[in-house]
Structures are given as C-alpha cells and as structure tokens.
Amino acid sequence: MYGLKTLVRPTTCLTRGFRRHITQISDDTITDMLVSKTLTSNKTNDDYIRCTIFDQQGNIRIQGKDIKRSEFLKSNNLVARDLRKISKTNTPNSASYINLEVVPSIVTRSSGILLNLLNIRAMIKPDMVVLFDNPTSTAEGPAGAGLNESYTHGTLLENMRKGLGNQAESSQLPYEFRALETILNHVVEELSSEMKLHTTSLKNLLDGLEDSIDSHRLRYLLIQSKKMTQFLRKATLVRDSLDEVLDNDDVLNSLYLNEKRFNSNHEEVELLLEAYYVTMDEIVQKVQNLIAQTKSTNEIVNIILDSNRNEIMLLGLKFGVGMLSMAVALYAAAVYGMNLENFIEETDFGFPVVIAGSFLLLFIYLRVSVHGLRKISKVTMTGNFKNDKMYK
C-alpha cells in the first residue's frame, strides 16, 4: 500500500503540472491570435481607401471602390502624410457627429487640392474629383447616425454631379473651382440646416421657460447649450480654415490647377472664397448671439431660483419665530397652571393678569424677532456699513 501511494502521488503531481502548463500555453496562444488578428484587421483597413471618382463631365466613374493606398499615393504623386487626415476613420456616435479632433483644412499639392471640411474628405484634380468614403460609417455607430450620413453622402454625390456637369451656367469658372464651390456650398447648406434645427429648439425652450421653470426644461437647456457650443466650434473651425487660405497668396495661386497663376492674380478664387467666408462668419455670429442669449436666460433663471429659495427660507424662519413666540406665552400659562401655591389664584384679577402678561410677552418677542428678520433679509448692493459698529 505504501509503495502504491508513493507511485501514485508523483504521477498526480506530474498530471497537475502538465495541465497547468497546457493551460498557460493555451492562454498565450489565444492572446497571440487575438493580437495578430487585430493587427491584421487594422493593417487591412489601413491598406485600402474607399472612394468615389467623378470625371470631367460630372459622371461617376468609380463609386465606393476600395483602392490600395500605395497605388493611390503613387498615381497621384502624394506621400503618406498627405492622407493622414483625409483618410482618418470617423465613427459616428450621433446624427450630427463630426470628428472635431481633425481640424478642417484646405491643402494644395502639385497634383491637386486636398480638402477636409466637416465630414467631407476629397481631392480635386484638374480633370477629376475624388471623394473619400468612410468604410465604417455603416458598420459601426447607431443606426440613425448611419442613415443620416448615408443621406448626406448621397446628397453630396447628387450636388457634385449637377455642379460638375452643369458647364453652361458655370463656363466662366474652371473645373477645380466648380468642384470647390460645390463642396463649399454643400458644407454651408449642412451647417445652415443644423443651425436652424438648434435655433428652433432653443427658442421654443426659452419661450417655455418664460411660462414655467421646471427641472426637465433646465436639463434640456443644458443639453442644447452643449450642442450649440459644439456647433459653434465646428463652424468656427471651417471659417478659420477659409480665412487662412485667403491670407496666403501662394495658396490662392496654387488653387489654379489648369491655368497656373502667380503673384496676386487670383481674383476669381479670392472672390469665391470670400463669399463663403462671409456666409460662414454670419452663421458664427448668429450662433454666438444665440449662445449669449441662452447664457443670459440661464443666469436670470438662476437668480429667480435663488430668490425663491431665499423667500422659502424666510417664510420658514417666520413660522419658526411665530411658534417660538407662542411657546413663550404657553410657558407662562404652564407656570400659572402648576399645582403650587402662588396666591394669585385666590384673587379675582389673577387670571386676566396672567393672560394679558402672556400676550404681552408674545407680542414683544414677536416684534423683536420680526424686526431682526427684516434687518437680515434687507440686502443692498453697498451693504449696511453705516449701522455697523466696525465702520463708526
């Protein structure tokens, strides 16, 4: 028996150690597989660019096709850093999602113009326009956000088709300027629609606060204020990007792709950008005024709530003073009603005297307390320095 036990115990220890070793190897293998799968997935997403290409007549030549990044960079004479912002993935989290980490920009290269305005990422060439699609726009994020982005992208495609194909009315503008104007017009329309939505919601909310102030309206006011602040930042970034281009003559000259310009001979594109800059500045000014009005309303609401809270506290103090004054009168009555000899009950005027004295004490204490409450509740802008002993 002892020999059998000595043989079984080492076997059991070896089995447990072997299982522990196998478990550790399995965990390490699973971890390596997950890491390699993640790296492979990221590499696959980074190696391809999904885009839609318009030709010179405004027709869609390629729609939603995945192109290798290396081939695209080589064919367009670009480097990898040029597409760092253009092809950055934006995952929508709301219907009006905009990735504010990527600053709007208009960059010129020898082969074309790279634009990153709101959710529009494009490259304008002398004879074509490349719109970069978001490959994760429909796979991730809420369904409403994906539908909204799909509708916006479809509207942009339709506007590009009309703007690039309509050469009769815009024959005086080069191809690159018609594409640039179409994109800027789409950006302005999107911002104007979003501004109208926020303005209508805030005005209805402010009108409702004039009738009654409740917690639901105040909470909704806070949410709308945050949305307006984000929208203001978004519109300001677009306006500033246009301002930077207008301040740089070299960039304005490089916007001419078909006919190169030099010095300050860039009146066409300058007038085009100035028109949209004025429109963007008008949107920013309207939003700033609405935010200022919202802040003023919020401050007024806070003042009203503070005043009501102070009145409620003062009313509670008044009730407390009244109850304390009655307690003084009841104390006198309780002392008079004790079973002790005080020789007052033997007289005919004892009861009226006690009653009169109790009411007199009640009145005196109430008068002194009310006077003290009035003195405390009287608030002035300069303070009651004249009656303070420290300033005499």
Helix-strand blueprint:
Blueprint: H1 2-47, E1 48-54, E2 60-68, H2 69-75, E3 105-109, E4 112-117, E5 120-124, E6 129-132, H3 143-165, H4 175-211, H5 215-246, H6 249-254, H7 267-336, H8 350-377
Antiparallel strand pairs: 1-2, 1-6, 3-4, 4-5, 5-6
Helix pairs in contact: 3-4, 4-5, 4-7, 5-7, 7-8
Would you mind describing this structure in some detail?
With 392 residues, this protein is of the alpha+beta class. Among the domains are: 47-157, Lipocalin (Beta Barrel); 307-391, no CATH class. Helices cover 64% and strands 9% of the residues. It is built from eight helices and six strands, in the order H-E-E-H-E-E-E-E-H-H-H-H-H-H. The chain has helices spanning 2-47, 69-75, 143-165, 175-211, 215-246, 249-254, 267-336, 350-377; strands at residues 48-54, 60-68, 105-109, 112-117, 120-124, 129-132. The longest helix has 70 residues, at 267-336. It is rod-shaped and about 120 Å long. The N and C termini lie far apart (106 Å).
Helix content percent band: 55-70%
Radius of gyration: 39 Å
Q: Calculate the terminal CA-CA distance, rounded to whole Å.
A: 106 Å
Helix-strand sequence: HEEHEEEEHHHHHH
Overall CATH architecture of the domain at 47-157: Beta Barrel
Concise synopsis of the structure shown:
The protein is of the alpha+beta class and 392 residues long.
